[in-house]
Automatic annotation (TrEMBL), chain A:
InterPro entries: ABC-2_transporter_component (IPR051449). It is found in: Cell membrane. It is a multi-pass membrane protein. It comes from Natronospira proteinivora. This is ABC-2 type transport system permease protein. PANTHER family: MEMBRANE COMPONENT OF ABC TRANSPORTER YHHJ-RELATED (PTHR30294), MULTIDRUG ABC TRANSPORTER PERMEASE YBHS-RELATED (PTHR30294:SF29).
Automatic annotation (TrEMBL), chain B:
Keywords: Membrane, Transmembrane, Transmembrane helix. The lineage of its organism: Bacteria, Pseudomonadati, Pseudomonadota, Gammaproteobacteria, Natronospirales. The chain crosses the membrane at residues 411-436. Pfam families: DUF4350, DUF7088. This is ABC-type uncharacterized transport system involved in gliding motility auxiliary subunit. The keyword Membrane applies. Residues 49-116 form the DUF7088 domain. It comes from the Bacteria. InterPro entries: Class_I_gatase-like, DUF4350, DUF7088. SUPFAM superfamilies: Class I glutamine amidotransferase-like (SSF52317). Residues 176-382 form the DUF4350 domain.
Length: 250, 440
């Protein structure tokens, strides 16, 4: 049932021009950034690092920064993709139908989440493919590339979970998008006032971008992966709870 | 099910409890994940984390470790430093890193003796070492030096009329001793005949001996050198030139003094005051600029040295001459007043370099003369060189596997066209097609 909802949601996503346009535009911007980085590497960095011991390589200077750029760009894009997920159904009245149907609430939420995650996986895949294409000209550090791609995927998954929850709170998609963006931006900047984890470990832990940065360095820590899984779990759980409570009220 | 005010209130309470439960579970799992964290390093050759030898070293140090980096407001540089220090933090989370802007805190810079921005120091306890190259190998070796520094003893042989390294008389070396202690060296005065040479001696110093050495004492000194111990030997042309030790090292130290008239330029009429203006390209004296002044100095002849690498230092002018103690002229030309000697010793898992420094004068470091020119600086440099810890831990250099990108023009164009045009174009076309179908 969950997969059926996910399939329905995906179909409606790809039958609207929105998903395709977002894919085209983000793909183009990432390609642009990526090609500039390749140019910089070939013209400046490679000669500058020549002969320096422990100098960074292509993966360090092209893949990792590209993933960081993608994180910033998707912070803007994901709220636009998630804003309609539930608010739209509420506005058009189809949410009522879903709630009175025998489908469990968790299946509805997970189905919608999986659909949006599938779309985001394609986006992350396109971004990750770009540095991978350089394998024809060098020996990439594939482990570091993979952990960076994993980090980006977990990060956008967390974005989507937050967006889904915000979409379950309102009937206005635009409000859902703005609140999602505000929340994510707050979590992004939360440790800017206290750099370094020594003085404020809790604030450092809450930072949505800090764990991603560890992953782009090739350090795959259980706590960093768990952060994103727990983040998704928390917001999906809140969204289910919210719809559940609504169902009882009606 | 009938819904009235009571069940509604009950529902609301139940809602609150559910949210609290969810939060509690998430927070509990988060705490657990941090408490029982494991990290895997996916980088090629695990270059993102410390090598085995660095990890062992960091674990063995039980004093607090601190990094101090003199870097101004340059986020990229600070980030790079932070990243490398992070590798050490993975092993020992208590490691501190402090950034100091040398422009904003000049007094801290002076305290560390920082000459240029970008210098980085490690501190173990209160021992401080400069990091010469900011790579894992450089940092680990600086850490190792700092960790071992606290038990580096500089042992002054006493009992043959030597000047006292703590004494305040004109011919004593008290000012130098004070400086060395301020740098963190431990100074010990030892009567070798009575106590032998302690095991933890980093450097044996024989400075300005006048009286006779007992054969047993001399054996101990020779054994110290044979076993790879460092030696700083300052002779006194009018004192005991210790031919047994000179022979052991292959050196010739004539019972004579070098005279040179270079001092006249500075108004010093006594030719037995030898001034050195120019220094060689050795590691000890090369950076020095100011003049150094040697009262009563003999030459060091290293032509008989065979199993050491040697580097003469402190060369006189070409017009210097040598007279014996009765005033007989022995020869003239350019003389070397000092000699640095090194040889490599192979232990089972590390390489050491044994260091011996010999200078034909003691008086240039005495309280009476150490204030002249750069004499103090030269003394410090000599002691630093000979007491340095030339043990080098082998840290593998692990470079990125992809430091060379060879793309043909065509491959580069293909990648550009594929990602910049074809892929977005396909997505756009699909979007247009969907839109067109829906229109119909």
């Amino acid at each position: 049932m969950m997969l059926a909802i996910a399939g329905r949601e995906l179909r409606s996503l790809f039958l609207s021009p929105l998903a395709w346009t977002v894919l085209a535009v983000t793909g183009f911007i990432h390609a642009w950034v990526f090609l500039i980085q390749v140019d910089t590497w070939v013209d400046q960095l490679q000669p500058a690092f020549a002969g320096q011991p422990e100098a960074p390589g292509v993966t360090d200077m092209i893949a990792a920064p590209l993933f960081a750029t993608a994180a910033m760009l998707l912070l803007l894009v994901v709220p636009l993709l998630t804003m309609r997920l539930i608010s739209e159904e509420r506005r058009s009245g189809t949410l009522r139908l879903l709630q009175s149907s025998p489908v469990a609430v968790w299946q509805v939420v997970m189905g919608k989440f999986l659909a949006i995650l599938a779309l985001l996986t394609i986006m992350v895949g396109v971004v990750a493919l770009m540095p991978l294409s350089l394998q024809i000209g060098t020996q990439l550090d594939l482990g570091k590339w993979l952990s960076g791609a994993l980090g980006l995927w977990l990060l956008v998954g967390a974005f989507a979970a937050a967006g889904l929850y915000m979409s379950s709170l309102t009937r206005q998609p635009v409000i859902a998008a703005i609140t999602t963006f505000g929340l994510l931006l707050l979590l992004w900047m939360i440790d800017w006032a206290s750099p370094g984890a020594e003085d404020a470990p809790l604030v450092a832990y809450l930072s949505i971008i800090g764990h991603f940065q560890n992953l782009t360095r090739g350090q795959v820590a259980l706590s960093d992966v768990a952060y994103y899984l727990l983040f998704m779990g928390l917001f999906l759980g809140l969204a289910m709870h919210r719809l559940d409570a609504e169902r009882l009220k009606s | 099910m009938k819904i009235d005010a009571r069940t509604r209130w009950f529902n609301r309470a139940q809602n609150g409890v559910t949210v609290l439960l969810l939060l509690a579970v998430v927070i509990g799992l988060a705490v657990l994940s941090v408490r029982f964290d494991v990290t895997a390093d996916w980088t090629a050759g695990a270059r993102g984390s410390l090598s085995e030898s660095s990890q062992t070293l960091v674990r063995d140090i039980d004093e607090p470790i601190r990094f101090v980096a003199f870097i101004g407001d340059e986020p990229a540089l600070r980030e790079r430093v932070d990243r490398i220090v992070d590798r050490y933090r993975q092993v020992e989370s208590e490691i501190e890193l402090e950034f100091i802007d040398p422009d904003l805190e000049p007094q801290r810079s002076r305290e560390f003796g920082v000459t240029q921005a970008g210098e980085i120091f490690v501190q173990v306890g209160d021992q401080r070492e400069a990091v010469d190259r900011f790579t894992e190998a450089g940092i680990t070796n600086a850490l190792a030096r700092a960790a071992r520094a606290s038990d580096r003893f500089v042992v002054f042989a006493q009992g043959h009329g030597e000047p006292d390294p703590m004494g305040q008389a004109n011919h004593d070396l008290g000012q130098l001793g004070q400086q060395l202690q301020d740098q963190g060296l431990q100074i010990q005065r030892v009567n070798i005949a009575r106590d032998g040479i302690p095991d933890n001696t980093a450097v044996l110093v024989i400075a300005g001996s006048r009286g006779e050495w007992l054969p047993g004492e001399m054996d101990r000194v020779r054994r110290h050198v044979a076993d790879g111990g460092h030696l700083l030997w300052l002779v006194d042309p009018y004192g005991n030139l210790m031919p047994e030790l000179a022979d052991k090292l292959g050196l010739g130290l004539p019972e004579a003094t070098v005279k040179d008239e270079t001092g006249q330029a500075l108004g010093i009429d006594d030719p037995s005051m030898v001034l050195i203006f120019n220094y060689g390209d050795d590691s000890v004296t090369e950076p020095m600029e100011a003049v150094t002044l040697f009262p009563h100095v003999t030459m060091v002849d290293a032509s008989g040295v065979d199993d050491w690498d040697r580097q003469p230092i402190l060369s006189t002018s070409r017009d210097a001459w040598l007279v014996d103690l009765d005033g007989q002229r022995l020869g003239s030309g350019r003389f070397d007043l000092g000699m640095l000697m090194t040889r490599n010793l192979e232990d089972e898992d590390m390489e050491r370099e044994q260091r011996v420094a010999v200078v034909g004068s003691t008086a240039f470091l005495s309280n009476a003369f150490i204030g002249n020119g750069a004499n103090l600086e030269l003394g410090q440099r000599l002691f630093n060189w000979v007491s340095a810890d030339p043990v080098t831990l082998s840290v593998p250099v692990r470079s990125a596997p992809d430091r060379q990108l060879d793309l043909s023009r065509n491959a580069y164009t293909a990648i550009g066209v594929l990602f910049l045009m074809i892929l977005p174009g396909l997505f756009l076309a699909a979007g247009l097609w969907v839109w067109w179908r829906r229109r119909r």
